[in-house]
Amino acid sequence: MRWAVAATDDGGARLCPLDRDGRPAGPVLREPSLAEAVRARPEVERWVWRSTAEIYRRLLADGVRVERCYDVEVAESLLIGHEQGQAGQARSLAAAWARLHHLPVPPDAPTRAAETQPSLFESGPVPLPPGTDEFTALLEVYAGQLTRTAKAEYPDRMRLLLAAESAGMLVAAEMSRIGMPWRADVHREVLDGLLGERFAGGGEPRRLVELAEEVSRAFGEGVRVRPDLPQDIIKAFARAGILLSSTRKWELQRIDHPAIAPLLAYKSLYRLHTAHGWSWLEQWVHDGRFRPEYLPGGTVSGRWTTNGGGALQIPKVIRQAVRADPGWRLVVADADQMEPRVLAAISRDPGLMEVAGRGEDLYADLAARAFGGDRDQAKLALLGAIYGQTSGDALTHVAELRRRYPAAMAYVDEAARAGEEGRLVRTWLGRTCPPLSADPADLPQDSEIPAGYGNTSAARARGRFTRNFVVQGSAADWTLLVLATLRNTLAHKALRAELVFFQHDEVIVHCPAEEAATVAAAITDAADTAGRITFGPTPVRFPFTTAVVESYWDAK
Q1: Alpha helices for 179-229 (secondary structure H)
Q2: Which has more pLDDT, 459 or 26?
Q3: What's the predicted TM-score (pTM) here?
Q4: What is the CA radius of gyration of the chain?
């Protein structure tokens, strides 16, 4: 049973049951409380609403959890991408309604800056035209989206993708509310040990000042160089007769000069200071929890991003601060060789599926069969096939893969060819990469598509991107279903365990120590279930390496 629900300005709700075609199956009801309206209907299997970020955040604040939802904004983004190959298009209810009625499409509201406290001046949802009833618009758009979904290249897969992305929105909202356990005192100890004391007036900490002075001395007496300014560094080396095109680590490491060691040390500590230093700690960690705002599907390939906080780039040294509560544990699970296994599943290559269905170390198994036992060569070859490495040793290795796994190689080759020719390229479930002819201005600011996109000269770069997109994007679709399955399993088992972190191929659950074994088994089961649901029956296994620890630091 599905119900549509919309919040009203006074904290209430309008809602009604829906039939299979998305039409009202009963009267539209008015309730004085959104939370109580949802809480009173546990039999509803899926709630249809305009935005999880808007509605579910309110429900969680009132202690209401829902099993499933259909997010109209998420669906609009995926459907318009599938239909027109356009990334980053307006996806609000107002935009979807305008498209349905062939009217000018209003742009989405600007993404608000991440904040630690709610703002009194948030813009709210994009308004509908005057005189347009919001709930009626919600029903019209939902019914229209069901019709559009039925016209997709693979309707059942698209329905699954919409459900999975909506489930990801629920997980993201819950993780943001729960927060990752974080010991601010441990974080400060790490900063103090690595950076030294802070000087009065907000200047750089002692160790950065010392390293900056060491860098300057290396260029001669009386020379002052700002190591935080790339152009300053490039000019200083130029005066020393060394030409640099950038200050990237790999380029600096090739140089024999006394400034290199302190400069690399400075750059590493400077990143720590600016990205996860004392200011970050004061802004983001409160009451023993780090609560970032996760953005599912934040990139073209479906990978998650965050709105501030840098949750997906936590430095290894700072992971010491991520510690379970007393009596609790962190169950940290990493998907093993996820993308090669996904390639086996989507290509249906018999040989590669057999390898991916045996043992937990796919590279070692592959090495024993095709590379004389050399695991490093097997890994280089398989990742080279996915990422489009076509020169040097990788070319020889890829040739061996073409001979042994022709269907897998043909799959990524065709994706690359389609990308070069400007055709639409889709993941297994139907997430779509924009074509070469798309306007670069229409792409999201954090788009993964190569620089120069839209120019003929960038065709090969896009081909390399789409070669990887079909694998990486399909992996992102699979992980959504892993999260959805794990979330529901934890709830149905009435565990106290909480999903607190996710990035790409890693998930962390915070749970009482006595629940850790159950949680670890649930993660394994969720991976297997998600594999069957996403890719259908295949012999491919999707194992996780799981660690039960008190500190995130100990899991790596």
Answers
A1: 184-195, 206-218
A2: 26
A3: 0.92
A4: 26
